[in-house]
Each structure stands twice: as C-alpha cells, then as structure tokens.
UniProtKB/TrEMBL annotation:
Subunit structure and binding partners: Homodimer.
Keyword terms: Cytoplasm, Isomerase, Porphyrin biosynthesis, Pyridoxal phosphate
Pfam families (UniProt xref): Aminotran_3
Protein name: Glutamate-1-semialdehyde 2,1-aminomutase
Pathway: Porphyrin-containing compound metabolism; protoporphyrin-IX biosynthesis; 5-aminolevulinate from L-glutamyl-tRNA(Glu): step 2/2
GO BP: protoporphyrinogen IX biosynthetic process
Subcellular location: Cytoplasm
Length: 434
C-alpha cells in the first residue's frame, strides 16, 4: 500500500495558493521527479517525519548542513542558551570571533567575513576579487552552482572563450557579458581563456569539488593547476566550499588536495555545515585580499543579520563536535551505502556510475566516468524518478533530482543504513523498468 500523503498534499495545495510553486526553493517541489513533496514536521538524528506521520531516513541532510544529524542535543542546548540571551544585537559578539577562529584554524583562510547565505558569500567574494585586482572578468565552469548570483547564472556562449549568456530570464545580458563559462576538468580550455583574456580576469571561481551536477571530483592536480594558472596571470583563485567545507573532510575539499599538495586558494566561500542548520555562510582568504573589505579597505559589503549570534553559536557548536570520529563515521556509512547502490544497480542491469569526494558521493544513471556537465547530463532522468519514488515508498528520502549529492550524517546508524540497504534493490529494479 502506498504511503498516505494526504496531509502533505493538502499543505502543498495551500502553499501553491500563496507561494510560487508552493516552495521557497525550486527543487523542493519535486518538479524533476513528480509526485507530492513531503512537508516535514520534525526531524531527529537520521530521520525525518512528515505531516502524515511517515518516517524517512534522510539522505539530503538539509542539502548538506546536518553533518551531525537533526536536533543534535548539544547543538540544541547551545542554541537554546543563546536564544535566551536575545536573538540579534547588530553589534560584534563573542560567538562570531570564536567561529571565525575555528574556521581559520581548520582551513586555508587567514581572515573571514560572515554573511547569511552561500549566494551572498560567492557574490561578495567576486566583488572583492574585482575590487582587489581592478579587473572585471570572471571565469566559471558549466555545472558548478554558486548560488543565484546574476553574474554566475550564466550559460556558455557559442564556442569556447566567448562570453556567457544569461542562464535565466531576469538576468540582463550586461550581468553575464563579463563571465566566461568553461567545461569542468578541461585544462586546455582554461589555458586558452587565460591566454586570450588573462590580463582582464579578476578571478576564477570553482566548486572545490563540484557537487551540484552530482559529484564530479577534480581530476588529480586540477585544483592545483587552477591555483597556479590564476597566480601566473594575476587573477584570484576562488574556491567555493559552501557544500564541501567541513563536509568532504574535516578541512573540506582543501583537506583532500591543497593541504596535502601545499597550495592555498586566494579566497574561499563557506556555508551549510558552518551554520549548523541556520542561515550562516562566510567568505575568507588571504589577509591582504580580505584587507580590501570595508571598513579596513574600500570594497563595500555588509549585512543586518551577518554573524547573527544564534547562527554563529549553532555553527560553532557543530564544528566543535565535528571531530575526526564524526568524519570517519560519515565516511564509513557513505561507503556502505554507495557500494550497495552500485551493487543493486548492477544486479538490475542499470547503467550507472558512483562518484565521490571524501564523505560526499552521488549516483549517476549513466556509464561513467562523469568528468563534466556534458557527461552528467546523460544521466537517465526517468530512471532516477522511478528510483527516487521506490526509495521514498520504502522510507528513504533521496534528493528529488538526479544531479544532487547524497548526504549522510554521524547519526546514520545501523538501523538507518539497513533501511537504505533494504530499499535499494527494489529501487534499482524500478529504475530498470522505467
Ligand atoms: N555554492 C555552492 C557550492 C552550493 O552548493 C550552494 C548551495 N547549494 C551555494 C553556493 C549557494 O548557497 P545558498 O543556497 O546558501 O545561497
């Protein structure tokens, strides 16, 4: 018998009457997979509970932030104590200093500035890169998502090394005409645009390891090559770790490449895990570059709720609890799930490839390897929709889109993982039949 979703369906109808598409971020509407989006009433550990009382193992983890699982008692206690002291003062506070110190200690950045979303972080990093270098052109990769920043909602123009066109109505051509969009993992394309436009390029921005077209890891040495190419041309290398930061590893993606190979990005953006489930994000980097930011320098940037005491308290509590043991646990659980997913799909005869970086992974329903957005686009949307719904019926909540990372947490215990393992063969057969 299918799960009862009457309460979610009713809420969805009410939501659609007052909110475009019934949601406040498009992918939540299940547009890519069809069906009724589940309205979640509460969450604890690895589990979500919807308004009909159905429980699901959560493999989205709020799209990354919930590294410790939902409603972690120590995070809740820290937040409750902070709330009792008032919710926002618009002054500097101690938790901001402590969270900044923690981020500086764990990552490559020397100075950090807090904002409220990943979008704000990348938007501000680009403004700072332009202000610092006195140049205007920004290079990005197709399939890398950096939030809904006008200049970055850009699609490749016709042919390599031509300037981009708007990726959505509402973005003026003037906002993307200084953006160059290249295929990911393509060194020759990077060489070519730097050869042609090097003295105009303010920065190259990339996801430290793309997770927004599914997980497409940088080929060995690719990030080092990007950092070196930028340095050679006087451009800044901006590593977007909004998703990978404090998630792929203790030190993010940089812990897996830069820290090992001995290089640093000029600027880094963070979000998700560092906000502990609250709206907090950050950008940071070289002290001399960050010194160009107001009030120290001339590049303007500000925010009413930036560094909010509740959000920074939640982030600090989360990072302090995110020990090596946490990453070991999440990595092991991810390994079990991704291996079982690959086995189930192989047994059902479904073409697939599973790719990962650190504790993050995703499943493409196409033969691999997936090196860039063009490869990722070959994943079977119909196969994924069938797979997704078969998992959902068996109480596993996957991302409702084929191009997303699957996230686990330190709360994904044996019961949660075995619920996923039990569901996978059914879902693989559903994908095969789609
Ligand atoms: N950069 C990356 C790599 C992201 O994954 C995201 C969000 N998925 C963003 C930026 C934008 O963050 P936000 O949704 O908080 O604006």
């Amino acid at each position: 018998m299918p799960l009862d979703t009457a309460a979610s369906a009713e809420l969805f109808e009410r939501a659609r009457a007052v909110t475009p598409g019934g949601v406040n971020s498009p992918v939540r509407a299940f547009n890519a997979v069809g069906g009724t989006p589940r309205f979640i009433r509460s969450a604890a550990g690895a589990w979500l509970t919807d308004h009909d009382g159905n429980e699901y193992v959560d493999l989205i983890c709020s799209w990354g932030p919930m590294l410790l699982g939902h409603a972690h008692p120590e995070v809740l206690a820290a937040v409750q104590a902070a709330v009792a002291r008032g919710t926002s003062y618009g002054t500097p506070t101690e938790p901001e200093v402590e969270l900044a110190e923690e981020i500086v200690a764990r990552t490559s950045v020397e100075r950090v500035r807090f904002v409220s979303s990943g979008t704000e972080a990348t938007m501000s990093a680009i403004r700072l890169a332009r202000g610092f270098t006195g140049r205007d052109v920004v290079v990005k990769f197709a399939g890398c998502y950096h939030g809904h920043v006008d200049a970055l909602l850009a699609s490749a123009g016709s042919g390599l090394a031509t300037f981009a066109v708007p990726g959505t109505p509402g973005v003026p051509a003037s906002s993307t005409e200084l953006t160059l969009v290249l295929p990911y993992n393509d060194r020759a394309a990077v060489e070519k645009v730097f050869a042609e436009h090097g003295d105009r390029i303010a920065c190259l921005i990339t996801e430290a390891a793309p997770g927004n077209m599914g997980v497409v890891p940088p080929e060995p040495g690719f990030n080092a090559f990007l950092a070196e190419t930028c340095a050679r041309h006087g451009a800044l290398f901006v590593s977007d770790e909004v998703m990978t930061g404090f998630r792929a590893s203790r030190q993010g993606q940089w812990g897996l490449d830069g820290a090992v190979e001995g290089w640093r990005p000029d600027l880094v953006t963070f979000g998700k895990v560092m906000g502990g489930g609250f709206p907090a994000a950050a950008f940071g980097g070289r002290a001399d570059v960050m010194g160009h930011l107001a009030p120290e320098g001339p590049v303007y940037q500000a925010g009413t709720l930036s560094g909010n005491p509740i959000a920074t308290t939640a982030g600090l509590a989360t990072l302090r609890l995110a020990t090596d043991e946490v990453y070991d646990h999440v990595g092991r659980a991810a390994e079990v799930v991704k291996t079982a997913a690959a086995e189930a799909l192989a047994a059902a005869g479904v073409p697939h490839t599973v790719q990962s970086t650190g504790t993050m992974f995703s499943v493409f329903l196409t033969e691999g390897p997936v090196r860039d957005f063009e490869d990722a686009s070959r994943t079977s949307a119909a196969g994924y929709a069938a797979f997704f719904h078969a998992m959902l019926e068996r109480h596993v909540y996957l991302p409702p889109s084929a191009y997303e990372t699957w996230f686990l947490s330190s709360a994904h215990d044996d019961r949660a993982v075995s619920t996923v393992l039990d569901a996978l063969p059914h879902a693989a057969r559903a994908a095969a039949a789609a």
